[in-house]
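Blackboard transcription, Thursday session:
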Amino acid sequence: MRNLASLVLLLLAFAAPLSAQERSGPLRITITEGVIEPLPFAAPAFIAENPAAGEFARDIAQVIADDLAGTGLFRQIPAEAFISRITSFDAPVQYADWKAINAQALITGAVSAGTDGRMTVKFRVFDVFAQAQLGDGLQFGGSTGSWRRMAHKVADAVYSRITGEGAYFDSRVVFVAESGPKDARKKRLAIMDYDGANVQYLTDDRSIVLAPRFSPTGDRVLYTSYESGFPRIYEMNVASVTRRALDEQPGTMTFAPRFGPDGQAVVFSLSSGGNTDLYKLNLASGARQRLTSAPSIETAPSFSPDGSQIVFESDRSGNQQLYIMPSGGGEAQRISFGKGRYSTPVWSPRGDLIAFTKQYQGRFHIGVMRVDGSEERLLTSSFLDEGPTWSPNGRVIMFSRESQGAQGSSTLYSVDITGRNLKRVPTPGGASDPSWSPLQK
Amino acid sequence: MKTSFKLAALVLVLGLAACTNPDRFAGGNSVDLNASANAAADPASPAYFQNTVGDRVLFAVDQSTLSDEARQTLTAQAAWLQANTDYSATIEGHADEQGTREYNLALGARRASSAKEFLVSRGIAADRLRTVSYGKERPIAICSDESCYSQNRRAVTVLRVGTGG
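(Written on the board underneath:)
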């Protein structure tokens, strides 16, 4: 685990060099269905304030640029087009030079690195056309090993200021790393930055592992492993990579675990005698509660952000559909009524949408619908898409896509909830079952 | 001809399973079906159970009900288990890839349980039989069409040495 505690956010208000007046509502992307033209920005290499900072100055600017351009909402103007050079963090910005190349936003920054392995990154964002700084300058401090995180934090701040939305770049993804042929696939739990950097393996490949899920604070992961010979749910501490089995009832199988928003409640599926129902476990007390009692399959539960409700899939109607019930159990309301089969519902962090997998006419789709089942929209279509997970700000969905045929393999993709910006998430090999962490602190 | 092909295919599959399926519960006391090439001729051998009795039953899409053919196979399995009380079994339920992961785990559990209940109804003690579901995690046929899917929608009775569950 990288040194999170030491990654301190220092709120420093740098005086803007030419800030004439405070300007409200300047540079802004309002994210709607209609946004198509990405906002052009320039992110020149950051200033290295001492020799040790040299290697980070350019890379940090590039990670920031990649984060922003990767959203599909921003477009990076290449350095070759620049007229002006940023030679000092505090020198006045030559707005005309940036306006001439149509850079609507300009991000400048400086890096200094100490001999003690610590570094600081500071930055400013400018609204070029308004000739004004956008918000205060900020400074982040941390170890040089966490330079990517500092870059992500800068990008998060820029994204939030321009879109007015929550950010998501300083986040991680836990997933199942896959290798080997389809009939002898090896699976390991792995964790990485949201953009595929810093991959780290959490288990070896001796046992099948499935569907890891982050805790609300990102410190722990629930997952299913066959290490006992049977599928059982486990809880892992991400920092120490220690794990413990939860709910070991002989003769049963447990899977599909997911945390409640308090980080203590765990909802999961238990199969006994061929029947699968939902249960809830309190990690602190060990108390266990049965939530459903039906001969049908009840699985893939997900809590609402306030913890009061659970969305899940059930085939009680004859095929897989989505239902919502109180988190203590009780009567469930069906919410999916379209054609096809609906599964793997996941409540959005904003609480307004449910992401799901839909199977219809031999194709798989990732889609979203409102909590009452209305306004269903399919975002993807392929031979096999499944298992959506939400970005911390509820704007982006990551999922698994398995390709067809004997050589088929699984990879991760992400898509904006508008359905745009579908792209592959880089992983070292095959990958499935992503779970997106909350924004790191 | 048909039978010998089937036999060869099963042995091949078993060979693969033995070395590539580290999650098979039987583990330490699992039965090595490749121990002797002649073993299949011995009606009390696991290889005979595997190849002649038939260790697996197949299911229709999204179903866990037993076909007539499946019932025949399981009836023969029950007779073999009655006669060979040194063995117990783990029934592994599987699904094809056309479904989401969690649902397929639950569906595999239904299939394994269907097979187990039938064996129990034919007089096999429930404590000699365990079930496990692999969902869509362990296909034996890897193409993406019905010719493979039909083989993957299965419940396989895997013998263990020992009488208890």
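Lecturer's comment: Residues 2-161 of chain B form a domain with the 60s Ribosomal Protein L30; Chain: A; fold (CATH 3.30.1330.60).
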